[in-house]
Amino acid sequence: MNLSEYDISNPYPATLIKTERITPEDSKVEVRHLVLELPEGDFHFVEGQSIGVLAPGPHEFGNKHHLRLYSIASPRKGEAGKPNTFSLCVRRCFYIDEISGEMYPGKASNYLCDAKPGDVVQITGPYGAHFSVPADSKSNLLMVGVGTGIAPFRAFVRHIYEERGGWEGRVRLFYGAKTGTELLYMNDKVKDFTLYYDEKTFKAFEAVSPRPAFDLPPDVDRLLLDNRQEVWSLIQDPNTYVYVAGLQDVAEKFEKAMITMAGSEEAWRKLRTELVAQGRYSELLY
């Protein structure tokens, strides 16, 4: 769905109540965890949904706002269980003009990263419903992501262990970043996922770039292959749901690893088609 097709006619005012850098200060990558609060009203969301942020203009072509979608990083009962609140995981982005070679700041990401507590942000949505936690607590979850693709998985894990409890299925997170300090919510600064390492059904696997100085992507495909016995047993289990989130590259790396495990591209395509048809395979790509 093209961004121009989203209905932004009824935005909500959300107040920023917390902004925290979750990558170290000496890292070239700035990612922030933002918590926003909505006024009392009829605003509900579930894990896996996104909200639209309207960065104020003026922008190109006379547009008053610039719309950007962000995955909600909180479970449905709100950030830290507080109603009418939700969190976002935002990377400050810059883009290179292919013609001039000049660097330009991303409109929405820089707007959010520069925002201060007390600022009001106009939001729309929530959008999307296909990227969701299954109802059966015996279901297995295979989650694969890179970068800020961790956001919906943070919401998933918090929901199943804190809000629902008693999750019986296997929960496996395979996550990659360029460096160890950029493993969001899993680095020395913010360790959200370590809260669940004692859960007998939860395991997290981490991958970093083999050559971060050359901007090579993290070896998520190698991480999956190094754990192929567990990954393939999950894929073969009819009670497993597969989620892939992040940049398009993560889907390509997941596909590469699955083709190797399946033995051929044809075999994987057939299995993937079955997973999609059964509602057990979802992607959330940026």
Explained architecture:
The chain has 286 residues and is an alpha/beta fold. It folds into two domains: 3-127, Beta Barrel (Elongation Factor Tu (Ef-tu), domain 3); 140-285, Rossmann fold (3-Layer(aba) Sandwich). It has six helices and 13 strands. α5 packs across α6 (265-277). 35% of the residues are buried.
Number of strands: 13
Which percent band covers the strand fraction?
A: 25-35%
**Overall SS class:** alpha/beta
Number of helices: 6
Strand order of the largest sheet: 4-3-8-1-2-5
Shape: globular
End-to-end C-alpha gap: 12 Å
Count of distinct structural domains: 2
Mean pLDDT comes to 88
**C-alpha Rg, in Å?**
19 Å
Largest sheet: 6 strands, antiparallel
CATH class of the largest domain: Alpha Beta
Detail the poorly predicted runs: none
What is the H level of CATH, i.e. the homologous superfamily of the largest domain?
Answer: Nucleotide-binding domain of ferredoxin-NADP reductase (FNR) module
**Portion of residues in helices?**
10-25%
CATH architectural type of the largest domain:
3-Layer(aba) Sandwich
Q: Can you tell me the CATH topology of the largest domain?
A: Rossmann fold
Order of helices and strands: EEEEEEEHEEHEEHHEHHE
